[in-house]
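User: My instructor asked us to take a sequence, write out its structure as tokens, and then describe one feature of it. I'm not sure where to start. Here is the sequence I was given:
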Amino acid sequence: MKKLISLLLALSLLFTLGSPAVAEGTDTAEGLTLRLAGSNIGTPNPFQHTTRGPGIFRTWLLYDALLEVDETGEIPWLAQSWEVSDDGTVYTFHLVENALWHNGEPLTAEDVAFTFGYYREHLPVYHSLQADGEYIVESCEVIDTYTVSVTLTHFDSTCLKSIGLARILPKHIWETVDDPATYDGEGVTVGSGPYKLDTYNAEQGAYRYVAFEDYWGLEPAADAIEWVPVSDNTLAFENGEIDLTTVAADLLSRYENDDEYVVKSVSSLHSFRLMMNMESVEALQDVNLRKALAYAIDTQTLIDTVMRGAGTLSSMGYVPTDSAWYNPDTMQYGYDPEKAKELLGGQTYSFTLLTDNSTDSTKTAELIKVYLAEVGIDVTVESVESKTRDNAISAGEYELLLNYIGGMGGDPDYLSDVYGANAGIILGWTNEELFDILSAQTTETDADARADMIDEAQEIISEELPIIMLYGKTMNYVYRPAKYDGWMCRYDHNMLDHNKMSYLIREK
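Assistant: Let's start with the prediction itself. The structure tokens for your sequence are:
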């Protein structure tokens, strides 16, 4: 196989600029400050940000990669073109020649080669650089100043995305750092992205980014982006304190017929899910108990009650029902308390359900408690801050846990990240058949055969129920186009503010 992504294609994707995203008659791009609701996502570099979406995507604004993502898929970025060897294991990337680090140093092939060598020993917080627990990059060779060859350990159907979206590091800063997770010295947030970190207040969760004036690529759409702490997002939006918010379905009429606002409703590629610690609670290893939990919960009523109907049922096979990869033969579990009681066989249980203290999560958890009580399962709801909940996931310190998380868009190789042998997310559960399928599908070159594997994986997941998938929110975004009208979704992630392209001037 020989592939060549032409330089002309890359340039047309990156530099064909049309009307700026800033509305006519308002602030120019040079004078625009976008304000968003803030939270502490840690230090925004590849080693110290939080594991959730806000931490990942705010870091991406500061750090570029060989590829980026828009509404169509992965597109050329720092790599303006590349070739692939016949066996699909060697990528030769040709870099743009005018990229600079925020401190003015040039970005070269040396930085790319260093990055993949450094990540071997110090994995970033967010990555797809391992397969079956092994690092996928065998070696990197600098061909010349702006050409680098990356050799993979094996062919993988998702390898280009895996290496392409890894954030490139400045060698001159990190080469002397032994512990990147704790480093707080000079250059700790120096990237090559369109924005630079100006200020950061960890206690308040407040950040200010400013446009990088010497950015090589698409022009930053804003002079500054600020994430500010607010107690109520909708009220803050009404008062002009933030420029983008999501609103509940019953508030949409306030904005839908008013030219001052634009409403964008998108199906979220996130889902509420009930996680079960089968390592610490042996009873949960019984698949009949897990199925009883699923039958006992009226998920549609959760949507109608908590989200005022603005949500979609999640598939028990994990892959969203509107995905081209969804298997309609996946087993689903409708609300059937009598079936749940039958599966329980008169046995009763008591569990603690851990959730974060957001309104949606707390309401969902309390309703789950009511449903499970009806079939003989007593639940104590424990509501904590999201960071505490996330720490409990990492430490395995929970019995039942309600979590709302994404990662369900794009190529379904994400199933390996959740259900694979080395995923480490589901505690106390194994299924060798599923592990083998998920491992094999990554190296399958026949598209139809791989699709069959993904179908089979969904069926096994839905029968085994290591995680009970519940529902996803419909995200109703509202903004003022007179202030800024460049918000957009990626093809694999439907959150407007979690998208690098939302903050760059592009052709409309």
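For the description part of your assignment, you could build on this observation: The longest helix spans residues 447-464. Try explaining in your own words what that tells you about the chain.
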